[in-house]
Amino acid sequence: MVGLHEYLILSGLLFLIGAVGVLTRSNGLILFMSLELMLNAVNLTFVAFSRYTGRLDGHVFVFLVTAVAAAEAAVGLAIFVNLFRLHRSVNVDQMNAMGD
Amino acid sequence: MERILFYAFGALAVLGSLWMVTRRSPLSSALSLVVVFVALAAMYALLDARLLFVVQVWVYAGAVMVLVLFVIMLLNLREEESRAAAASWGKFVLCGALAVALATKAFGVLAGVLAVPPPVSKDWGGVASVAEILFTRYLVPFQIVGVLLLAVVVAVVALAKRAR
After folding, report:
1. What is the pTM of this model?
2. For B32, which residue in chain A has the nearest alpha carbon?
3. Which residues contact B6 (CB under 8 A, 6 or more apart)?
4. How far away is chain B from the Cα of A20, in angstroms, using its nearest Cα?
5. What distance lies between CA A85 and its chain's CA centroid?
């Protein structure tokens, strides 16, 4: 039987990889996908704890996180399409419209 | 058997996410993220989360990733300049070393905590059992998510319309 710690370490590694992606990439869409990866890593923690404590509350939270992530995907991608029409690029390093 | 499946799909998820973060083309990033999502769906199946297994494949690997791929192809994005990707290789190596150190330390600390999952009924994690708790104890968050989805539909239509 696989122990809880193995799921937690896998989830931590996936979260770390997603965080590295958010911090090092400049393409807005890859940034967005790294964010989705981080959300999924947290979801795995919820499901693992849910199984190892025998309570279903974690499943409900994962369900809600999935709904919010899908909503975020719709709004985020609409914003990226509009940004691309303005700047002809989705490179977030060049986005400084609110900076000065 | 369960251990073999866990390590196979876990390795697939880690390799897929590493591939996603290091690709220069957004298209290959998106396709490797689909692999990660399917591997995580397999993890949910290993954890007896039947409903979430289906939701993961439908909503994440299906709906969200189709939307991302659609936008990537709509924008017809060029690959990033190689300068930005080359400059971050040192950071990737440093983060990898930190990750291995963290994982070995965490393995030592966490090993043995809740090692054996409690036995659960046959329906545990299915549609009926999750719906029962979702529509009783978590009814208010569920309704709030419904309002959020409505607001998102209106917002996306407004964003798409103004761009014309």
Report:
1. 0.88
2. A33
3. A2, A6, B43, B46
4. 7
5. 25
